[in-house]
Design goal:
29 strands, globular
Length: about 425
């Protein structure tokens, strides 16, 4: 019986692997990505209140089964009361662009994603310290993957004030035995991870961790600001691309490749990373010596990356000398690189949850990153505290057909002001 079960597991795993490998890794430029299921046939679920749970809440909508489009008839702040949201049922669009202004902001908790073919767009996630004491153990991520999901897009989200990582692509105990793969972080703000807050390890301001053998992670067009390190960190055995991002006011380091060893992903192979067209601006209180655009080691390809320390001096590309690759080890088909100056212009205007309607928090973070006045923080209370606003309501009418185009038009309106 045991041999039969092992054979069945092997067959299932092989089938899942084959299914993932049918199509090449592809980049998408459309504002609303297509993750491979029919939106017109999906169930529409309306979020009708800002409650932490219960009927009509976002938590309830995420628990539903089957292909679905989640829309918001309300706008405002959802207090998660220190209980993480879990997105585990596959084939879902969380369409934050459908919410009336000021949009949807989550506080005192984050989102864990283990669902294949999932999209989260135009949401702000700001966990904060929830008033917990320094070192007490409360350590939420902003948005992260768990299990082994594939085809996950986090697009135009604002991820700030986490106590662990703001935005991460990690593999933990995948039920299929396969790592998470094809995870896309696009046009996001990843900023102000809390430093000396409630994490049990002490100071722990981290931007993005790619961990556990996670494969084909694309981090493109994002603003990283005021995270002490992991801007981002790719651990051994992972792969992906870091393209056209701005890393501002890093404390310890910007981009980083982990070395094989206990606790670093349990892999003997270095990460495979293509690092192209990124800009690093160190801040006034960044580490003063030994700056480099990339630290650690990886099987890495570098092109057109630029870095300056606080004094305007050019940063070397690598702190630890190793032989870079002559060609990208991985690259999603269709991804085109912008010149660095164009990428910075794009980031200044078009990243975050609602770029054309930025809330005061995102306005401040972007302005400070660009002006060199950003700071590491220990608590959200140092920068005005959790947001509060009057809830808004506007019932959403979802068309029966052409929903992808409809969502695209809504995304355009809050991204470009069209």
């Amino acid at each position: 019986m045991r041999h039969l079960l092992l054979a069945l597991v092997a067959i299932t795993t092989h089938a899942a692997t084959a299914e993932r490998e049918v199509k090449p890794w592809m980049w998408q430029t459309a504002l609303v990505p297509d993750v491979g299921f029919d939106l017109d046939a999906a169930t529409v679920i309306h979020v009708t209140n800002l409650d932490a749970n219960g009927e009509g809440s976002l938590r309830d909508a995420l628990w539903k089964k089957g292909p679905r489009v989640i829309v918001f008839d309300v706008g405002g702040v959802i207090d998660l009361k220190m209980k993480e949201l879990n997105l585990s049922e596959p084939q879902v669009y969380v369409a934050g662009q459908t919410a009336p202004a000021p949009g949807i902001t989550l506080i005192k908790g984050g989102i864990s994603i283990s669902a294949d073919q999932s999209v989260i767009q135009h949401i702000a996630v700001r966990p904060g310290d929830a008033g917990e004491a320094v070192g007490s153990g409360w350590s939420p991520d902003g948005i992260s993957t768990s299990g082994g999901p594939h085809h996950v897009w986090i697009d135009h989200c604002s991820c700030t004030w986490s106590v662990d990582e703001n935005l991460s692509a990690s593999t933990y105990k995948p039920p299929s035995g396969l790592p998470a793969s094809r995870i896309f972080f696009r046009n996001c703000i990843v900023a102000e991870a809390l430093n000396n807050a409630s994490h049990k390890k002490g100071p722990h301001s981290k931007g993005t961790l790619v961990y556990g053998g996670t494969q084909e992670v694309a981090i493109v067009g994002c603003l990283y600001s005021s995270n002490y390190e992991r801007n981002p960190l790719f651990q051994p055995g992972t792969s992906g691309v870091i393209v056209n991002n701005l890393m501002a006011n890093c404390g310890q380091r910007a981009m980083h490749g982990g070395l094989p060893g206990p606790g670093n992903g349990d892999s003997d192979s270095l990460a495979k990373i293509s690092i192209v067209g990124n800009t690093v601006w160190m801040g006034k209180k960044s580490k003063r010596t030994g700056h480099a655009i990339f630290e650690g080691k990886a099987d890495a390809y570098f092109k057109d990356n630029e870095g300056r320390d606080w004094f305007g001096e050019s940063m070397e590309v690598m702190r630890t000398p190793f032989e870079p690759l002559s060609a990208p080890p991985v690259w999603p088909a269709g991804l085109e690189v912008m010149p660095n100056a164009t990428a910075i212009h794009h980031i200044s205007r078009f990243v975050g949850a609602r770029p054309a309607q930025r809330d005061p928090i995102d306005q401040r973070i972007v302005a400070q990153a660009l002006s060199g006045t950003a700071s590491l923080i220990d608590s959200q209370e140092e920068v005005g505290g959790y947001p509060s606003c009057q809830p808004t309501e506007m019932a959403v009418t979802v068309p029966a057909r052409d929903r992808l185009a409809w969502l695209e038009s809504l995304a355009r309106a809050i991204t470009f002001g069209d």
